[in-house]
Amino acid sequence: MADLDDIRDGKDFGLDKPVQTEGYFLKGCSHLDWGTKDRLSRIFRPDTGRTVMLAFDHGFIMGPTSGLERVDLNIVPIAQYADCLMGCRGMIRAAIPPTLNKPICLRADAGSSILTELNHNVVIDIDDAVRLNASAIAVMVAVGDPATEAGTIANLYHAVDIGQKSGVPVLGVTAVGKDMARDATYFSLASRICAENGANVVKTYFCEGFEKVTASCPVPIVIAGGKKLPELEALELAWKAIDQGAAGVDMGRNVFQSDHPAAMIQAVSGVVHDGLTPEQALELFDTLKADGV
Ligand code: R5P
Predict the structure, then answer these.
(1) In this predicted model, what pLDDT tens digit does every residue of 207-227 receive, in sequence order?
(2) Is ligand 1 within 6 A of the CB of residue 55?
């Protein structure tokens, strides 16, 4: 029961202190709804504005690829060093303990395998993303692929429609098919198409002239790592991407295929969040490695 005999008039309304109306720390996200911003603030660290996403969704296309043979053994022990985990619903439910309490970017389209490359993907039900407490859903867009371009853009459009209803942000993943260009002109086009169609974050690849890709995209960009590189080269890739405007990485193989994944993800995080140069990050990697990490 309300205590009707104890209704006290408020006294301090801070009349000399205007309400702060500053924007939001992520580019292009100031006008999103509270729940969407809350979810994005779980993926991107508000203190740095950046993220280290650990991608392990590869199995839904590639099967049990190297470094992901046992997600419970390969990913769970290093998940603590990531800001966000990106995976598929089956593997998340099967292998990721909810007690990790890590934000999830849920791979939300399906329909392709490594055997047939790009296909006509479908988007999962938003209810399942909400059940998984997803902080974002990720959908691939195949700009320039004659067979799947329209369908995958429609998928993104649909994902944004259903995501917005529940305040779940959408990450647009720019696909790179076998015959697609991998340059700044292509990635600018693909990233911009994702953003214009409503993606709140875009995942693409680093390339020569990458600053053009980030500058022409109105929302944050994270880069995929791509094929496994020597550690220093992967750290250089992350450093250059951040230097040229990326808001983080969504890295998989360069972490989980490293001989020392826990050391590698901490080194990547050093670059993304702590301003380490690639050489300093490699030193951190080597120190952690020597410590048996
Ligand atoms: C690509 O569509 C997958 O979603 C991967 O998550 C992405 O490529 C990042 O992984 P990697 O760093 O291994 O390229």
Answers:
(1) 999 999 999 999 999 999 999
(2) yes
